[in-house]
Amino acid sequence: MRPLTRPSFLSRHGLLVLGLALVGVMSLASLLAPWLAPFDPLDINVRAILQPPSWNHPLGTDALGRDVLSRVLWGGRVSLWVGFVAVGISTAIGLALGLVAGYFGRLTDEIVMRGVDVMLCFPSFFLILAVIAFLEPNLTNIMVVIGLTSWMGVARLVRAETLGLKSRDFVLAARVAGAGPTRILLRHILPNALAPVLVSASLGVAGAILVESALSFLGLGVQPPDPSWGNMLLEGKEVLGIAPWLSVFPGLAILLTVLGYNLLGESLRDLLDPRLRQ
Amino acid sequence: MPKILRRLLLKTVWVAVVFLGITVVSFWVIHLAPGSPTDLQTTMNPQVTPEARARLEKLYGLDQPVHVQYARWLARLATFDFGQSVSGDNRPVWDKIEERLPLTFGMNVASLVLTLLLAVPIGVLSAWKQNGPFDRAMTVLVFAGFAMPGFWLALLLMLWLGIAWPVLPISGITSLDFPHLSLWGKTLDLLRHLALPIFIYTFGSLAGLSRFMRASMLEVLRQDYIMTARAKGLPERTVIFRHALRNALMPVITILGLSVPGLIGGSVIIESIFALPGLGQLFYQAVMSRDYPLIMGSLVLGAVLTLAGNLLADVGYGLADPRVRQASGEAA
Q1: A contacts of B21 (beta carbons < 8 Å)
Q2: Which of these ranges, A60-64, B297-301, B314-318, has the smallest mean pLDDT?
Q3: Residue of B27, B28, B87, B287 best to disrupt the A interface, most CBs of A under 10 A
């Protein structure tokens, strides 16, 4: 029976495998950028300006003669970093508030959930834009602001899980045994509520990468000369007619990365939720 | 009836509280950030003395503590006075917003209508023949739609339809010879300029909405009354379009109300790419020149639209589904 499970897993979870592969390849490529990149991403070469893709420069060069492949690889580090830190922040906030709201209920719950409602009504991209422009656009500010404006989904999710878990027998048993709320929440409820959080974190990384690239595209994200996929597209837009490769490859990198995290999240959700499995 | 009235009243109070909360947070964040609107006119100009700068700050009320500034701003807002822009022309904020409202609003409404017209059939067909070839093809499209950054799609389309095969203009809202065109020519010119932006808006929201329509339809098709309708021997067509679609459509229409914040954010990017003189571009310029009154005015407008969308979604949902009406009536 053993050999049979392998092909059936692949065919049944093709999307999961594709997502994992995309995420794995894009992550490895940017993590190994210092070794993989054929050129220094900041190296200006006036004798190789706006060259189309060639053997020497597989993805061409930009208006300052910098190698686009090297810049795409290094730019991936920005996206990866922003995605993970921003989601780390939003997940931590969402987890804490969701656990507390779900477990203590009543007034605590009311306050937290109304806070969630208020945050959901924010025209958040407007506010992110204003805050970043005022605080000076740098990576730390971008990650923190994205994290602080995207925790609401996790909070709702965790609250719902906690509500369901807190009346289960094993939680009652823990309480009878004398465990305090902190111990019950961290040792008994949190581990059982983690699965949906993982799903939303994967989708969250995709969302954060999109927001960062949009900010950088507006000139309010990563500042030149440092490469990020968004600001490379901004530079590409200036020479759209003469050097289209500058506008194609960084966007493709965004598409593949975001697609990977979305596929991963969606197929994890299907995998973890038995009601959806057919 | 009194129950519904009470619920409406509670809802109104709640909306007012949320609105105040949004303005308070926005005002504080914007005013406490380092820098000031006078920077552009003073620091960059070596001839401006500190005294002149102080006079300018006093003129704009920036020498007061933040809570005093907020109170003044709120008091003026109550009389529908958004204040005056502090960058360059000093025109009233509302005038600047009003002249740009039709373009942004029109484009968003047009793309919402298009999205609905496409997403509903796609969702219904996908759910009807779940896991069939059409459903699978649409799933691929949906994932592509979710992962595709709007501004990249814009660049690709500009490259294709504007440069490689130049059939559409890629910048601005009218051509140079616009004033000399006939009425018909003007309409056509405008439509040609707006075709790409509207397509990109539509593509962006199509993925989410068609997915939601599919889920809603699948949910309805699982209900007992659908089985009853089929068991009665009704033709499949009647079951799908008369019994299922009606019930599946309502949550989809209400979710449109929740898409407002996304549309507002999207307009900043798309209007900046296509150089369209809309609200998004105005907000971007306001942020760049630290035009506090103009930023606050735009944020207020954004918040009002978002809240109105939420309220509509809420009311619509309650009207459509008696179960929700009852449950929230008891809870409230």
Answers
A1: 118
A2: B314-318
A3: B287
**Which residues, in sequence order, are CB contacts of B188 under 8 Å at separation 6+?**
none
pLDDT in tens, B241-250: 878 888 888 7
pLDDT of residue A7: 54
Closest in B34, B149, B158 to A240, CB measured:
B158
CB contact set of B77 (below 8 Å; sequence gap of 6+): B23, B300
Residue B118 DSSP one-character state: H
**Average confidence (pLDDT) over B167-193:** 83
How far is residue B114's CA from residue B256's CA, in Å, rounded to a whole number? Answer: 12
Q: Can you tell me the distance from the alpha carbon of B284 to that of B288, in angstroms, rounded to the nearest whole number?
A: 6
Is some CB atom of chain A closer than 8 A to the CB atom of B144? yes
| Closest-CA distance of chain B to residue A244, Å | 7
Identity (one letter) of the amino acid at B182? S
Cβ neighbours of A159 (radius 10 Å): 24
Q: What is the percent of chain A with per-residue pLDDT over 90, rounded to a whole number?
A: 32
* Nearest chain B residue to A256, by CA: B147
* Chain B (35-64) residues lying within 8 Å, Cβ to Cβ, of chain A: 35
Query: What residues of B are in contact with residue A241 (Cβ under 8 Å)?
Result: 163
Tokens coding B113: 């209508």
> Is the alpha carbon torsion for B74, B79, B80, B83 positive or negative?
negative
Is residue B329 over pLDDT 70? no
pLDDT at B251 over 80: no
Task: Give the pLDDT confidence score for residue B27 in this predicted structure.
Answer: 85
Cα-based torsion angle of the residue sequence A125, A128, A130, A132 in order, rounded to the nearest 10 degrees = -140
Please determine, for residue B215, whether its predicted confidence score (pLDDT) is greater than 80.
Answer: yes
The answer to whether the Cβ–Cβ distance between A118 and B143 falls below 8 Å is: no
Residues with Cβ within 8 Å of A69's Cβ and at least 6 positions away in sequence, in order, are A37, A38, A39, A57, A58, A59, A249
pLDDT tens-digit map of B119-161: 988 988 888 888 888 888 888 888 888 889 989 999 999 888 8
More confident call, A31 vs A135: A31
Residues 266-285 of chain B with CB under 8 A from chain A are: 266, 268-269, 272-273, 283-284
B36 close to B62: Cβ distance less than 8 angstroms: yes
Indicate the residue of B146, B265, B288 with minimum beta-carbon distance to A133: B288
* DSSP sequence for B245-311: HHHHHHHHHHHHHHTHHHHHHHHHHHHHHTT--SHHHHHHHHHHTT-HHHHHHHHHHHHHHHHHHHH
The C-alpha of A131 sits at a distance from chain B's nearest C-alpha, in angstroms, of 7
Contacts of B290 in chain A (CB under 8 A): 133-134
Cα-only R_g, chain A: 22
Full DSSP string of B46-80: TT--HHHHHHHHHHTTTTS-HHHHHHHHHHHHHTT
Cβ atoms within 10 Å, residue B236: 10
Round to whole Å and give the CA distance between B314 and B101: 25
CB-CB under 8 Å, B22 with A217: no
Instruction: Render pLDDT for A139-178 as a digit per residue (tens, 0 to 9).
Output: 888 899 899 988 998 998 889 888 888 888 888 888 888 8
